[in-house]
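Study this chain:
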Amino acid sequence: MSIIEKAIRNLDKNQDADANSSNLSASQDEVLAAESVSSAQQPATSVVPEGAESEHGFINIPVSRLAALGMLSPSMPNSQIAEEYRGIKRPLLLNIDGKGATEVQHANLIMVASALPGEGKTFSAVNLALSIAMEQGKSVLFVDADVSKASAGALLGVPKDSVGLIDLLEDKTLGFRDVVLKTNIPNLRILPSGKLHQRATELLASDDMKSFMLELSQRYPDRIIVFDSPPLLLTTEARVLANFMGQIVFVVAAGKTSHEAVTDALQYIGNDTVVGMVLNRSNIKASARYGYGYGYGYGGRT
């Protein structure tokens, strides 16, 4: 039995216990519904103040609003959620540095996925990117690849009309620097999803996309690319993207995601891709969570 199969079996044991859980890890829908919450939290001194005037190709990530939503914020590096994501990112970083249990091709290409909507995928993707951006000697490119919703972009303050990934693939006159956005978090860049396009799947599956991904992976060895993808069971775009990835963080909502949904979604991920599972919205105590919520389902597909 593979380590992933063991992880799936463990999900069934936690469904009843976690059904009424209200863990600090909110679902994607909960995060978006709470975006109007205000906060008196002050941004960290390492980021540009939120009221600073924006310039071309630059956005101010609303770190105070993220903190109000219960998300990771540079202003609170010692919060519980910051500690949790330190545990989640560690195996990913070990693989990138070639210190993991197995050699991983393109290990710095990381996709955060889920089987269905509302399981905390975007919440997890944004938190993971922010956590890695706090590492010394690492830079992060966050790619909003959920091209039909662009929920992560909205959460991070990306303007709706921003050009992005789809525009880059369609318009040969655009270059990477024309679409990437610098942020008030020094080690974090954002590639928006771009405009809606009826041929989005074909563009994501194109040779241009493959070449672009390889360039991202190889050109900057210290850069980690985190993708927020659509749900695997709802769109073909997510299945196409999974083929390019070295590592996949698979988000499972405790008490919500069924065994069958996880099994069906994992079929769209190649056997040579390293898959880790995050058990989101679990009521397991923090002392018991480390090495369980993410680590218990982490490993290669066999």
Notes: Residues 15-55, 285-302 have pLDDT under 50 and may be disordered. The CA atoms of residues 178 and 290 lie 40 Å apart. Strands lie at 58-59, 109-114, 139-144, 181-183, 188-191, 223-228, 247-253, 274-280, 299-300. DSSP finds 13 helices and nine strands in the chain.
